[in-house]
Here is the input.
Amino acid sequence: MIPGYVFVLTPIIFGILLFLLNHGHAKQSALLFQASLVFASFYNFVKLRALDPPLSMECLGGWSSTIGITLKWDLVSAVFVILTTTLFFFLFVFDYRSGHVDRLFLMLFCTLQGLIIGIFLTHDFFNVFVLYEVSTIIVSILIMFQKDKQFIYDGMFYLLTNLTAMVFFLFGVALLYRMLGVLDFALVRERMALLSDVRSLILPYAFFLTALSLKTAILPLFSWLPRAHATPSAPSTVSALLSGLFVKNSLYLFFRIRNIFDPFLGMTEFFLFLGWLTAFFGALLALSQKDIKLILAYSTVSQLGLITMGLNMDHDLAFWGAIYHILNHAVFKSTLFLSAGIIAESYGTRDIEKIRGVGRRMPLVAAATILAILGITGAPFFSGSMSKYWIAYGTKDALTTLGFFIANFWTITCFIRYSTIFLDAQTHPTKSSPLSPTMQHITVFVMGLLSLFGGLFARELTIFFFGKHLPLDPLSYLQKGGIFLVSLFGGFLALRVIKRSKILEKIRTLDLSFNDVGILMFLFFSLSFLYLMVKYAFL
Amino acid sequence: MADVVSFVIFFIGLYALMVKKHVLKSIIALVIMETAVILYFIAGGFKEGMLPPIGDVLPERMVDPLPQALMITAIVIGIASTAVALVMYIHLHRKYGTEDWEEVMKKRIEKDA
Here is the structure.
């Protein structure tokens, strides 16, 4: 196996070399480098699968895991590394002829890749903090990258909220270290079992939960995400990367850290509810937006809520469904963001009411968008339907099932509205900017096809990636297909009703200031702390 | 004692984040919170009569060196992130001509529309 630190360090070193050497073939060599990383990640995955059990630990520098840094390869982290390298490869192909790509951009982009892989592999609390803090800085520079339309407020908001979250995280780490004397995930878990009173874990857990909930954009703490992911100054590859991959880092950490604490302090029902709220209101906010990129960003919030629900259902099938949905969402959301970028550039606007006739103007991009929309709404045979089917399997009572379908109903409605960009134009656009490179059209189309592929071969893929046989009952799958069609029809009706009322206008103007986010963080922290205190008061 | 002090400092910083509308004060509040965490971490490794882990000190006579190593990292990262935040603050001020969060928010919406 190729050691994990190679995956973390080579992108960073490569990026710095590109920046320093500044030769003419930077883009070609970057592409070649990305292709080799994809191969390397697949190679490692295959090697890992051959191990029994499929698990490999690395202690960096020969230190023991009590004081050193460890990296962990298991099937989930190896799959996420594959996802990272593959997505980055597609983004590099997409950006091959873009004007904004210079050596600084390449350096930042490559460094971010190393950090993302690092977060997927790390097995140490403090390491998470370091990797996250550095990636926050890089992301905040990337989202303001196009200087001509710099939206400094969005970048500032992103930077300060996320830095605050990481201070919360660090305090959690400090409390944990003081109590247990170790920072390695596995050792922390071992030593937690030796504690005489699990209630002493409540305070650090509340700190972790506040930080991770902000990072995963769970309901009251999500307002930084749409701003950062849809800001006009971010190149569309950056938006695709943030929404498709970077938020998955936090989800990944969320369930890793939750799994450590879960045997002692259970929070699943709390997050099941918050996940539902996030899924519901995220989709509602997405519906109210006019800007196509903002629609996609709010829909990311909603999908994150859905995945959080799946992860917290205490059900094996729902858990793996949620993990599979993370992969699927990465594919179709980055497709949507890239194609939205092409569309917005070609029409010179991001207003959904002004964009018409995409199908005629850019057939490949339109096809990619449609494929991705079918994926995200959970149309039968597409990737989203499979993962959502498995998540819905975990809903135990009627209320959760109903909540799940209501949340998905709003997503469908929102994307019906998004599809109005395919309607034929009555008036031809006056301004006709040059079409983007064909390379970009082909890239998004291939990525769109992947979301069909992920649906058709879902069972084979989950067996290949996770070694899990997830059952699929044709009858109940058909039933879910029926629900999809009913929701589709209902969505059309709902859209007509909503368009007449002024509700959307009101929702759209909701905006939280920075101080509000601070207050919400404090409230979230106190609430989760009190919740755990009350729940475990009588031990 | 140091534990209580660091908790108090942390929540003073958080309080400033919640109520201060000045962008620069928010950055300062963040640094205050960071300082509290560093104090808590370092104080955790301290024991009466132990020596700092520098030079020829026997391992049994020195304080736990790990928190100190970790906190040096945290301080360095903290400086970098504060520097980035300050640079952004300068740009924010030049672009919008104000340093009040709410006014900036209003101006951003106006420019957006």
User: Anything to note?
Assistant: The mean pLDDT of chain B is 87. Residues 65-96 of chain B form the longest helix (32 residues). The CA atoms of residues 31 and 82 of chain B lie 8 Å apart.
